[in-house]
Design brief:
Four Helix Bundle (Hemerythrin (Met), subunit A), elongated, eight-stranded mixed beta sheet
Length: 309
């Protein structure tokens, strides 16, 4: 399946929700007035684009329409796509990598946000490119997480470093770094336990893992990826706010975008926190985790011009 098809399929619910909301505007409105633009703004907010980003997009459209630069629905959708893409691209960057040795990725987030699954899918993505991957099972609180990661290791041919349930997560991380260095791995993905920002013990454990990693590789981790369940909508913003400050999150992975009609959360989170989105989960299959593309995302979200027309 082509990458754009993956984005389009994964964001279909969001595109349909937006299309249903604004479809009437494109058939009924002859002259776009303030009320019509306000309805468009409300539909973007309902899709969890966030108030600030929605207003900015609509203001740009209104200004150009009043200047005679836009004539109707097709123009408005086209410019909305372009503006959304530019907004997201401004905060996009390539993933940081190690100048030598393995690139160390620390996965953080709340329970159920998709850390372990994302860790496995990243291993799948990179091993398919011929890269050597080591997985570290540092969620020692949950035996199921260790078993899940071991399954991903078997599936992808990746090494898995694990210990017994209840083991010191930082010690597992230290062993994983040592092993990844010894075997010449290209990537080390460290899966950590889910936690809330107010769980002091778990947050201290995360800081300890970081310190231990840096004893073996002073410049690691090269990315701390915060996984956010996009299906929870604007609640994703409060998650990102807390974790960005406490966990040292450097970038985002948005999971479960395919399961929600509110896939605009990508816009709201990046707009507020200026954290780049590096990967998005667009389905359950390993290939449905894709590097984030502002162009493909914007095209897929506004692929709704034929809905209700």
């Amino acid at each position: 399946m082509a990458i754009f098809d993956t984005f389009k399929r994964g964001l279909m619910k969001t595109a349909v929700a937006i299309g249903r909301g604004i479809g009437g505007l494109f058939t009924e409105v002859k002259t776009w007035d303030d009320a019509a633009f306000l309805k468009l703004e409300n539909e973007l907010i309902l899709a969890d684009f966030g108030v600030a980003a929605s207003r900015r997009i609509v203001k740009s459209l209104r200004d150009r329409y009043q200047q005679g630069k836009l004539s109707g629905a097709d123009d408005i959708l086209s410019v909305a796509r372009t503006d959304l893409c530019a907004m997201l691209a401004a905060g996009t960057r390539p993933m940081h990598s190690a100048p030598e040795g393995p690139t160390v990725i620390l996965m953080v987030g709340v329970n159920g946000s998709g850390k372990t699954t994302t860790s496995g899918k990243l291993a799948s993505l990179w091993t398919a490119q011929g890269k050597k991957v080591t997985l570290a099972a540092c969620d020692t609180f949950r035996a199921a997480a260790v078993e899940q990661l071991k399954l991903w290791g078997e599936r992808t041919g990746s090494q898995v470093v694990a210990s017994n349930p209840g083991a010191d997560a930082a010690a597992v991380a230290f062993d994983a770094v040592s092993s990844a260095l010894a075997r010449g791995a290209d990537y080390l993905i460290i899966d950590t336990a889910g936690r809330q920002h107010n769980q002091k013990g778990l947050m201290e454990e995360l800081a300890k893992i970081r310190r231990i990693i840096q004893k073996r590789m002073p410049d690691a981790p090269h990315e701390t990826l915060l996984t956010i369940d996009a299906s929870i909508g604007t609640n994703a913003i409060s998650q990102a706010r807390e974790f960005a400050a406490i966990s040292g999150a450097s970038a985002l992975v948005l999971t479960k975008l395919d399961g929600t009609g509110k896939g605009g959360a990508a816009v709201a989170v990046q707009d507020e926190f200026k954290l780049p989105i590096l990967f998005v989960g667009l389905g359950e299959a390993p290939g449905d985790l894709q590097p984030f593309s502002p162009e493909l995302y914007s095209e897929a979200v506004f692929s709704c011009k034929d809905v209700n027309r």
